Amino acid sequence: MTSTAAPPIPAPARPAPRARRSRGKWRGWMFVAPFMLVFALTFIAPVVYAFVLSLYRDQAFFGGTVFVGADNYAQVFADPKFWESFQRVLVFLAVQVPIMLLLALVAALAIDSARLHGTGFFRIVIFLPYAVPAVVAALMWGFIYGDHFGLAADLNHLFGTAIAPLSPSWLLTSIGNIVTWEFVGYNMLIFYSALKVIPKELFEAAAIDGAGTFRTIVSVKLPAIRGAIVVATIFSIIGSFQLFNEPNIMRNLVPNTIGTFYTPNMYAYNLSFNGQQYNYSATVAIVMGVITAVIAYVVQLRGSRKEM
Amino acid sequence: MATSSTTRFSVTNPRKSRVLTAVMALYLIYTLVPLVWLVINASKTQTALFSTSGLSFGGAFALFDNIGQTFTYNDGIFFRWLGNTVLYVVVGAGGATILATAAGYGMAKYRFPGRRAVFAVVLGAVAVPPTALAVPTFLMFSKLGLTNTPLAVIIPSLISPFGLYLIWVYAADAIPDELLEAARIDGAGEIRIFLTVTLRQLVPGIITVTLFTMVQTWNNYFLPLIMLSEPKWYPLTVGLNQWSAQANGAGAQPIFNLVLTGSLLTIIPLVVAFLFMQRFWQSGLSAGSVKG
């Protein structure tokens, strides 16, 4: 970030601007303050409020709330429903995120390689699902998975398989497929933007050294876009832990398989809006937020140190 | 760009590969099949949906009939949802872009007390899942009497940490300090410099942020779902899911054809926006990743 450092202006005598600079030390706030004001209302205040809520509990018979300290947290950590939902998103994270990022990386490398016929067409079409709302994606795929007017039956017939995407054993995979479909293009774009700004001389130097395509990718391109890979990984981890839209919408199709605590986020949502357990719901949200932030932080630390 | 036989292939301009194109075409098919399926099935009547195969046209071509029904069903509630969505996008995403542009520029071009703190807080906020904030935000807004009003959806949409970051790195590159100094020596005030000098330089960055905040607001589901209780304030996403849920339960009134047509109508504006503004947002993103 060299250009954000103090401006190295060759200085003719300029007393006037200097005097103004010391007077206008705070003027940067003119531009930042409106953002920070709304930010305080929509980010900081809810975090503080959630924390306060998590320290109290509703009294069942007497009404009102009572301070319970860390009791709610103890309850979350001993709550089998929470851990079941947590485990589910963890499995989702471990399987879906690598597949999605790998697909995105391959797509970005292919598009960046200039070896495709119709590069621009590939780039825009692969990105396109990002513009489709999660609601529409989940509805659409949900119908496609279904027996009535979907494609699953046709495909099973064609390949002689018996995959039922909406059955309990396949459901998480089916949701993973929707999320992959939605976000490969977005991640591809992150990788592609990073690939595009690698200095071309590096490739020429690698070619002179006799590096083939594969070698160039491994030794030049991947290290150069490590930052982008870390960012995409962090965003994907956050996304997995918050999994909500797709399963919540597909509940309409399979209400018996997707319960009220299918993912931690659905659990927090249903605690609040179907159970009025606001304090406990806030605690679940905070626990998930802290776990997410810690994991994102660890990935960021490892990613910036380790060689690819 | 026709590659004639006389072109010399080089590292930066290699020979096109049919194999690679074919492999990528498979992925392209995967991407497109659901969308094609949607277009095909949005053109079927409810009966034809059940009686014909998924990927072929069947029965009468009912797309325009379906569109008409979508807009008139239940006293034209879909039209109302469309209007709500546009309102949330224009005010929410528009406001988010303005706030992020001003703040990103301020972070890039000014040194001021508390700048590091702003950076740390905003960066930390990116790691907090927005949905984790949703429940407390709802409770807070309900105390303030804001729930079930458009403001409940608009206010949280006004903040885009990603937008701030993008404008920041973009402004750091695109606006030379010399330009600002020159304007100051000419006697222009800071706000005036921002409006007359800065904004023009930031256009690709601003368009990129506009598109992405627009997508986020247009596609937002969770926030309006919890904030709004009356269908008259729903955006398209929540409304569509309500239509879809009509197929369940005791008094089930399935309107699959309208759900499908409504879905198609919901995605068209964004797809068109992205296609037409490709050049701008792609250059905006590349600039962002220089520092990323």
What does this protein structure show overall?
- Chain A is mainly α and 308 residues long.
- Chain A has a single domain (78-305), classed as MetI-like (MetI-like fold, Orthogonal Bundle).
- Helices cover 69% and strands 2% of the residues of chain A.
- In chain A, strand 1 (56-58) and strand 2 form a beta hairpin.
- In chain A, helix 4 (80-112) crosses helix 8, helix 6 (134-145) crosses helix 8 (171-196) and helix 13 runs antiparallel to helix 14 (278-305).
- The longest helix of chain A is centred in the first third of the chain and has 33 residues, at 80-112.
- The two termini of chain A are 23 Å apart.
- Mean pLDDT of chain A is 84; it is low at 1-20.
- Chain B is mainly alpha-helical and 292 residues long.
- Chain B has two domains: 16-61, no CATH class; 76-291, MetI-like (MetI-like fold, Orthogonal Bundle), CATH 1.10.3720.10.
- Chain B is built from 14 helices and no strands.
- Chain B has helices at residues 18-41, 46-51, 63-109, 115-127, 130-143, 150-157, 161-174, 177-185, 190-201, 203-219, 222-227, 236-245, 256-276, 278-291.
- Chain B is globular and about 75 Å long.
- Residues 1-5 of chain B have low confidence and may be disordered.
- The interface between A and B is large, with 111 and 113 residues.
